[in-house]
């Protein structure tokens, strides 16, 4: 079968021929129906040197996957051939307390996991191929009726990651509050819809591309703001001078972190999700009083179940731009150039 594989650090992936996987005991092979192209893959192929990640090359990219069960190994009883499934992408040890609660994104025994701090497409073979080997059936969530795999795939990361970040800030997202979404790409376009679908907060979208701001307006943002030196003042103007209660930064550059805390209201939350690698000095006076600054990584299995339900009911729309496996590299080039609307999804 064909697979798009990362074969070296600081190189582009290659489309190569690899054997189709077969499932061992407890494992499942999924016929891939959709694999999302995440900006993190661009960081993987361009920013990381040899030795920075605890992973062996080569491996197939694609950590945002859904499809149909193709074959199950001995002992698998929770799914059967033909089931449409989403793949929960953070593959932990399955046994530590966090994993037992479905919080495999923060597994506490990564050395006992199939791969250290990763999953399919992050250190192990991922979904940019015709078939994907999933090491345990517990990592599969059956798709509710009305959700096809190519639409569901982005929900497993572009949807799940902002859902997790928003969910932990729910108590601050009241009808009188404001949430700011910075970066309306794959994750951000889901974030603003998730804020809208699950809270009554006012939503301000910020991006440096007009097409992204147009998409944000269509997806229900109350206001859009160009990401520039005037953005923090614009957000204060839109909030009667108070600032925003929750700011979600899907870029993570120095400029966007600075913007987030400059536009925060006292007692607010600033959550850095993007991994552009920006840093800012932190001191008593560097942000308004009682602003919490945090990072989040991916989401939990329970949250994926909730999110799939929300999407199946039509409460959020996954905007996808679809590519064939042969065109997967072009998807990454378009993502790098800012030419993808919503999420790029490879449909093998
Ligand atoms: P994307 O390329 O689809 O979207 C990024 C958006 O940010 C684009 O719309 C772009 O125009 C906008 N942008 C870029 N610079 C900006 C600036 N200075 N101000 C405002 N907007 C700006 O990327 P994505 O796949 O949505 O990923 C977003 C980030 O989140 C990436 O850094 C990715 O690696 C990271 N990520 C983190 C997690 C996590 O668990 N923390 C999970 C997935 C992705
Ligand atoms: Zn990702
Ligand atoms: Zn664990």
Task: State the main characteristics.
348 residues; alpha/beta; Quinone Oxidoreductase, Chain A, domain 1; Rossmann fold; 7-stranded mixed beta sheet; 6-stranded parallel beta sheet; 10 helices; 25% helix; binds nicotinamide-adenine-dinucleotide; binds zinc ion
Helix and strand succession? EEEHEEEHEEEEHHEHEHEHEHEEHEHE
CATH architecture of the largest domain: Alpha-Beta Complex
- Content-based structural category: alpha/beta
Going by CATH, what is the homologous superfamily of the largest domain? Medium-chain alcohol dehydrogenases, catalytic domain
The total of helices stands at 10
Which value, in Å, is the CA radius of gyration?
Answer: 20 Å
Low-confidence stretches: none
The percentage of residues in β strands lies in: 15-25%
Family: Belongs to the zinc-containing alcohol dehydrogenase family.
InterPro entries: ADH-like_C, ADH-like_N, ADH_Zn_CS, ER, GroES-like_sf, NAD(P)-bd_dom_sf
Cofactor: Zn(2+)
EC number: 1.1.1.1
